[in-house]
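Sanity check

After download, print the first record. It should look like this:
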Amino acid sequence: MIDLKQPVKRIPDSPLVPYPSRSLVPERDISSMPVLETQHLGIDFGGLTAVDDFTITVGATEICGLIGPNGAGKTTVFNLLTNVYQPTRGNIMVNGFSTAGKSTHQVSRMGIARTFQNIRLYNNLSVIDNVKVGMHNMMKENLWAAITHGFGYGKAERQANETALEFLDFFGLADLASAPAGSLPYGAQRRLEIVRALASSPRILLLDEPAAGMNPSETQELMENIRRIRDTFHIAVMLIEHDMSLVMGICEGICVLNYGKVIAKGTPDDIKSNPVVIEAYLGKKGGKGDA
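Expected structure tokens:
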């Protein structure tokens, strides 16, 4: 377990370089196994192709963005990566292992955690209990101890409480540990959902529109928290976001989807100046886009 009370050492910025699969990853991650690789991933719903030929590599400590106009297929990609949807074609590899045929629970144990576009907390449970729900991958007590509430259960429960409080303190939520999750302000609920996802000990954290509904100061705090998450836990973060100031300010690599297809991949500077991306968002005549 990472000591969350120790000072955080900033992971240095790093240029993107080609990985052997010809995808780009931060140079500092080039000697590590990619945390996530997809190859020609796609899914059809009846006669509709929602995602097609989605291929990406995410470095072990990369912060990357998945952007595109509304309806481009971004959340569908997240549902594929977590096996909420089973792909029609293509492969997903997490830390070098295929997720084919795995349940969402098994994929979580492989190292993927996510948040949702619409916050999904257990509103009637306390803040700390919401975090403990996310700690299922860390709980080690045996079935008999859990049934009888014997010594093993009590020890595991104490450790879970201590760890959950450390997580909450790290994100400034420890004073609210006993409060019902549904009573928290909107920004705090967003942070709690991220804490709960982190409590599952992921290798990559998927954030679906984490800045939705936030004011500028909350968005700035979110950017700092995302960097702090990466630097503290040494994990990758992949986010869907429409706030381009956040995406361009924090992401090292960006993948752009349109109508379920990847139309561009590269650094923020590459994406900002890419005419295909500009057309996808603004249209050929420069009309106002929906992003």
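If your output differs, re-run the checksum step. Summary of this record's structure: Confidence is low (pLDDT under 50) at residues 286-291.
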